[in-house]
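Q: what does this look like with flavin-adenine dinucleotide bound?
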Amino acid sequence: MPLVYPGRPGATGHAIVVGAGIVGAASARALARRGWAVTVLDRGAAAGATSSHGEGNLLVSDKLPGAELDLALAASRLWPQLVAELAEELGPTFPALEFDPKGGLVVATTPEGAHGVLELAASQRAAGVTAEELTTEAARALEPQLCPDPAATVFYPQDVQLQPAAAVEALLASARRAGATVTTGVTVEAGLVGGGRLTGVRTSAGELSGDLVVNCAGPWAGEVAARLGVRLPVQPRCGTVLVTTRMPHRIFHKVYDGDYVGATQSGEAGLQTSAVVESTAAGTVLIGSSRQRVGFDDRLQVRVLAELARKAIALFPFLAGMNLLRSYTGFRPYLPDHLPVIGPDHRLPGLYHVTGHEGAGIGLSAISAELLAALVCDQPPVLDPEPFAVHRPSLEPHLAQEDR
Ligand SMILES: Cc1cc2nc3c(=O)[nH]c(=O)nc-3n(C[C@H](O)[C@H](O)[C@H](O)COP(=O)(O)OP(=O)(O)OC[C@H]3O[C@@H](n4cnc5c(N)ncnc54)[C@H](O)[C@@H]3O)c2cc1C
């Protein structure tokens, strides 16, 4: 079936969103609700890629003070309202998003780790984060199965968990109700350019014209940008998660070791792991996660699984006696300066990007979409978009050269 512009009486214009992961879904909804005719295109299935191959944490605790933390704080204010809106709009028969404001515990297991964890918490508090240093007794009151002698524990009540694939489905359903069309099984192959601007896309199902194209292709956003005619240095950063069999709930918060912050902020290509442990509503325990830049190689690596398991057991000794159900691997969309790009591409009018969220794309998706929509519709943005612009100084050197 050839693609056709759906039309929408009175629409501001037609936006083509490339990617039906959580970022594309949120972007489609935000634009459709502002009067745009929206077509979402995905070569696979909705939520078929990264957005269903990770965890669903909306975190402020792992962010250093700066632009990403500001975005995360805005996201943590937005999500409760968004979840309530989606529940009301889609009704009780729609699968729940499993939104759980359970809070996060960051645990240092060594005196050296304790210094870093407490220092980070102090800097985050100065930036508006609630970060409460806990005694061992208080920490074990929150998590009775926690290791007996943590060197330091900080509680972050603003950390939240949700079910990412359910969130994608809900955002897409809401976008459809606002008039968006979602077409899967269609690959965007190239851009259509006319009069010095992008005027649409050539796809595996034919050409589609649009007033703007939004690149939400996650770890493939660099490849999609190249197909459309510009360089964007998004690379995949591999991550593996272990899933236990179901058990009675014995872990009540999202708990991670203090190494994790270093891993999120590091640009190292080699293997980095730190344990991130949390229960799901279904009763499984998720143990993430690793970080490694190995291209799109998702072969199982036993040493990664072993390292994650060892670190999780250091936090929760009872896990040594539990069984694993499965493990899975996904690819975070990584940019070399660890900030997403949100907004127009100055090199090609008509092209916008919302990508590069790395390990925070679930949490930051909805607020990024709000920022995109404000920029597209020339409305006041929820926060300063400049740190996320394609032309920002920290990204500029990478727009021209190949990264390794
Ligand atoms: C192990 C792991 C743990 C994680 N944990 C968390 C977490 O706890 N919290 C958090 O916030 N984030 C987490 N993340 C990160 C998060 O999953 C990602 O940042 C987010 O899912 C990115 O969403 P996306 O929509 O940009 O990309 P995707 O979900 O990958 O969607 C991109 C879509 O683009 C489509 N596409 C690509 N190329 C084309 C093309 N040429 N034509 C048409 N379609 C195309 C793909 O098929 C895909 O469906 C984790 C990631 C991993 C790997």
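Residues 14-53+165-233+337-400 form a domain with the FAD/NAD(P)-binding domain fold (CATH 3.50.50.60). The radius of gyration is 21 Å.
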